TrEMBL record, chain A:
It is found in: Mitochondrion inner membrane. One of its GO terms (molecular function) is protein transporter activity. The twin CX3C motif contains 4 conserved Cys residues that form 2 disulfide bonds in the mitochondrial intermembrane space. Belongs to the small Tim family. InterPro entries: Tim10-like (IPR004217), Tim10-like_dom_sf (IPR035427). Keywords: Chaperone, Disulfide bond, Membrane, Metal-binding, Mitochondrion, Mitochondrion inner membrane, Protein transport, Translocation, Transport, Zinc. Mitochondrial intermembrane chaperone that participates in the import and insertion of some multi-pass transmembrane proteins into the mitochondrial inner membrane. Also required for the transfer of beta-barrel precursors from the TOM complex to the sorting and assembly machinery (SAM complex) of the outer membrane. Acts as a chaperone-like protein that protects the hydrophobic precursors from aggregation and guide them through the mitochondrial intermembrane space. Residues 12-73 form the Tim10-like domain. It is a peripheral membrane protein. This is Mitochondrial import inner membrane translocase subunit.
TrEMBL record, chain B:
This is Mitochondrial import inner membrane translocase subunit. It is a peripheral membrane protein. Residues 26-89 form the Tim10-like domain. It holds the Pfam family zf-Tim10_DDP. GO terms for cellular component: mitochondrial inner membrane. It comes from Trichoderma gamsii. Its main location: mitochondrion.
Amino acid sequence: MDSSSVKQSVMKQVLAEANLANARVLIEKLQENCFEKCVPKPGSSLSSSEQTCMTSCMEKYMAAWNQVNAAYINRIRQEQGNN
Amino acid sequence: MNAAQTGIENLDLEKLNDKDKTELRQFLANEQQRSQIQAQTHNLTQICWKKCVTGNIKGSKLDKGEEGCLANCVDRFLDINFLTMKHLNNMRS
């Protein structure tokens, strides 16, 4: 392998691992927060309304993540402009 | 060829020339920054989710009020962050 393809391989692997790590944390947090919201009093089985709540909540949590990420990056840019 | 299967340990990093080394360093610095921002986003999302999404989950989309609340929540949390730093600095002197 030449220099360029070694570089490409390293980049590709770093990117894949970083994205996987990020997805893992997102899923962990999403589960924690949506479980709290959708299953306030755990019964003997998961009800259909709890299941519906969970699928909506997952999408909603991801939307919230994106919204927060955008607001955070916005603020970082602003602060950098002020310095 | 699948890079994820090859593993960095199997790559011959000695083969990198100076130009590619510099590019790789820059790439890694950017990735590190990206992952720090993502980590802080995870933290902020959890804090602001608890503050802004208070009702029952009715749909999979954020409503307008929640959207605005999340944006404000991030900004105010960071205000507090800066204020804390400033105050700690003042206490020192």
